[in-house]
What we know:
Elements: H1 20-63, E1 67-72, E2 77-80, H2 82-88, H3 92-95, H4 106-122, E3 126-135, E4 140-152, E5 158-167, H5 169-229, H6 235-259, H7 262-266, H8 269-284, E6 287-292, H9 301-322, E7 326-334, E8 337-344, H10 362-372, E9 376-381, E10 387-394
Parallel strand pairs: 6-7
Antiparallel strand pairs: 1-2, 1-5, 3-4, 4-5, 7-8, 8-10, 9-10
Helix pairs in contact: 5-6, 8-9, 9-10
Amino acid sequence: MTKVRPQKAPGPSGAGDVPRGDEELRRLVEHQMRELEAEVAERRRREEELSAERVLLRTVIDIIPDYIYVKDRNSKFIVDNAAVARNLGFTPEEVIGKTDFDFFPRDLAQQFYDDEQQVMASGVPLISREEPNYYPLSDTWGWHLTTTVPLRNSRGKVIGLVGVSRDITSHRKMEETLRESLVLQKVAREVLESQERERKRIAAELHDDLGQNLLLVKNKLLLGLRAAAAGSDATEAMQEAVALVSQTLQSVREISHNLRPHQLDELGLAKSVDGMLRRLASSSGLAVKAEIRAVDGLLADEAEITLYRIAQESLNNVVKHSGAATACVTLGEVDGSVVLEVRDDGRGFDAADHPARGGGMGLMIMSERARMLGGTLELRTAPGEGTTLTVTVPALGRNDA
């Protein structure tokens, strides 16, 4: 009898040797996992580096005192440094998404907006432009030196702008102080030269006019005395001497008037100016229209003579330089100040090209004298449009007004 040898049933898959295809799949999966882990690690490393760079960049722009900002196409802040935020009185995060209209006076904000839109539309940067700036926290104004350049994406399309602005208010003040100092030096030189010319003029008048007249008076009197001693008629010599004395007295009055108009003491400022206008109209042919109101007692003596001299000098300039047919002069009190205005219909001039136009005191000297009285001198003129000079001097007790 034939015995059948039992056969082993096949075991489950994987219980013995692993098939070749499964092993390759396992190794492939492990390789891909390692690559994925490496890629994740590299990405994490890059993100950490990028984060560190962002922190470094933020630290750098925040410690820089200049205003640094980035805006989108609508001029909204998308980046601002600590200097910008401090000036506006907010945190950097609070500034994001806002525009200059949220912080500045509308006219100034509109100017900023127009300039930025022009930069983004043209692609042409604005480099180192001086412009006014407002400080909201202190409610004051100053000056900034601003550069704005278009911000482009990787395809070259303008997507916003980058701005850097430096506060130059202190530098402007220093420049203005220096300019004022130079102007004052020039004014001082002109005053000294004017005083020296005045001394020479007075010396010449004393020598050529008074001196000669007195010498003639002396000689006439000697002739009269000799005639009287000889028993002759001395009437003619004495009459000539009297005439010379009268002429000499008139010369003395003119010299005295040039030094200080006696009308100011006798008549007051208003009538003195009015009298000066009448004399000028009769001697020059200039048609003078005057509106003189009572201002006597509103100014100190020194201020009165200074304002009188400014009126005198400005009208001399009208006669000598303007070619005007008519001059209008007003003098009166306005809001606690004495205001003198001299307006002509002459040819006018470019004030920028003639900062010291006119003889005598000149515009700079008149302006400086007005400033020394706590007042101001304003000049409005243009070629072909005549000239208007306005001097405003605080009345007594109103210097702080």
